[in-house]
């Protein structure tokens, strides 16, 4: 008797379930030939820093890390004292999904969750929070604002929205961190430059995600305020995030940034989410929730449809929000047919 494994094309739980782009795998193989200096002193890492400088239209520093959580926690640690606070959205990854790493790495800074639609911080709430008990030794000191681009619900902060949050942050003398686990998706969706969507809006440190969009194990911190680099370097080593063979992480990032692969991959993931959104809109009884600008789609499905999809081998998150709310995430590896099959299954189960 043979058992059947559900097709991997039915996995919509996260973009980190996708494989890696062939160009990236080949770059790792090439980097394996011969010796190289360790701990980031190799030529490939230097090349990635130069490439990022071109992409962001200014000189930047770079810390190569192996997870997005490390990028976020180390960045926040460099931007706030232990008695500071991190103002973030209540649905943000830093607030919900990092096992307290930001609190741990900052040495105890407090995360202050704020509201706002589509997981975007509400400007009025931010305006109040940046001044709340500032200078009062009995409270934590507002120190850094962390925004996510694209947001955890698949929306993107427009240039105006980012500009508003950046201005409130800067005018109050706070630092600005961006969780860019899906930064490529935002750049692809908005058609604005990486510079406009980061340091020109006041971002000091960017967690530059790549693992969800084509690399195997490599993310980065892009450092715009380069005075922070020495401290970040010590923090990264202390956190076990300075890989001896950094060249292999760097090779992934190098291929990722070459010839626009990062933006092509992100555009593909976004297009697949758009295809899914359009398809779901055409099916009665599916309630779409929030904006889908990037590669995450939230909707409401009747419980029996969710269960029938799961029984057929579809994988997606469905039990983390209010009952009936499900999340589908697409990636650079999603094919048109994968979306069409999913839409067909949703329609079939709704009809049945
Ligand atoms: C918004 C956001 N930030 C950061 C991360 C990084 O997570 P990890 O530490 O798993 O790479 C994720 C991954 O799901 C994410 O969705």
TrEMBL record:
<keyword id="KW-0663">Pyridoxal phosphate</keyword>
<dbReference type="InterPro" id="IPR015422">
    <property type="entry name" value="PyrdxlP-dep_Trfase_small"/>
</dbReference>
<dbReference type="Pfam" id="PF01212">
    <property type="entry name" value="Beta_elim_lyase"/>
</dbReference>
<dbReference type="InterPro" id="IPR015421">
    <property type="entry name" value="PyrdxlP-dep_Trfase_major"/>
</dbReference>
<comment type="function">
    <text>Catalyzes the cleavage of L-allo-threonine and L-threonine to glycine and acetaldehyde.</text>
</comment>
<dbReference type="InterPro" id="IPR015424">
    <property type="entry name" value="PyrdxlP-dep_Trfase"/>
</dbReference>
<dbReference type="InterPro" id="IPR001597">
    <property type="entry name" value="ArAA_b-elim_lyase/Thr_aldolase"/>
</dbReference>
<comment type="similarity">
    <text>Belongs to the threonine aldolase family.</text>
</comment>
<feature type="domain" description="Aromatic amino acid beta-eliminating lyase/threonine aldolase">
    <location>
        <begin position="12"/>
        <end position="287"/>
    </location>
</feature>
<dbReference type="InterPro" id="IPR026273">
    <property type="entry name" value="Low_specificity_L-TA_bact"/>
</dbReference>
<keyword id="KW-0456">Lyase</keyword>
<protein>
    <recommendedName>
        <fullName>L-threonine aldolase</fullName>
        <ecNumber>4.1.2.48</ecNumber>
    </recommendedName>
</protein>
């Amino acid at each position: 008797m043979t058992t059947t494994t559900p097709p991997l094309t039915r996995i919509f739980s996260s973009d980190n379930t996708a494989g890696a782009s062939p160009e990236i795998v080949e770059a790792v193989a090439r980097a394996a030939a011969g010796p190289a200096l360790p701990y980031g002193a190799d030529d490939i890492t230097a090349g990635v820093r130069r490439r990022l400088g071109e992409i962001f239209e200014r000189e930047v520093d770079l810390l190569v890390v192996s997870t997005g959580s490390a990028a976020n926690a180390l960045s926040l640690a460099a931007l706030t004292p232990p008695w500071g606070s991190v103002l973030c959205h209540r649905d943000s990854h830093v607030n919900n999904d990092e096992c307290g790493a930001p609190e741990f790495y900052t040495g105890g800074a407090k995360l202050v969750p704020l509201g706002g639609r589509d997981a975007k911080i509400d400007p009025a709430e931010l305006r109040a929070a940046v001044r709340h008990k500032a200078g009062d030794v009995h409270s934590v000191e507002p120190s850094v604002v962390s925004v996510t681009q694209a947001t955890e619900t698949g929306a993107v902060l427009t240039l105006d929205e980012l500009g508003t949050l950046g201005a409130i942050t800067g005018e109050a003398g706070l630092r600005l961190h961006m969780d860019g686990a899906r930064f490529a998706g935002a750049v692809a969706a908005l058609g604005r430059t990486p510079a406009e969507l980061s340091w020109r809006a006041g971002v000091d440190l960017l967690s530059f995600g790549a693992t969800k969009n084509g690399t195997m194990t490599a993310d980065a911190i892009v450092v715009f305020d380069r005075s922070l680099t020495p401290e970040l370097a010590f923090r990264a080593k202390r956190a076990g995030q300075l890989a001896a063979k950094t060249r292999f992480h760097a090779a992934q990032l190098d291929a990722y940034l070459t010839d626009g692969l990062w933006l092509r991959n992100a555009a593909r993931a976004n297009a697949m989410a758009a295809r899914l959104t359009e398809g779901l809109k055409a099916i009665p009884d599916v309630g779409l929730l929030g904006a889908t600008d990037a590669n995450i789609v939230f909707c409401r499905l009747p419980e029996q449809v969710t269960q029938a999809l799961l029984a057929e081998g579809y994988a997606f998150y469905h039990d983390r929000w209010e009952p009936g709310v499900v999340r589908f995430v697409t990636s650079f590896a999603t094919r048109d047919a994968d979306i069409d099959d999913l839409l067909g299954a949703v329609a079939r189960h709704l009809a049945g």
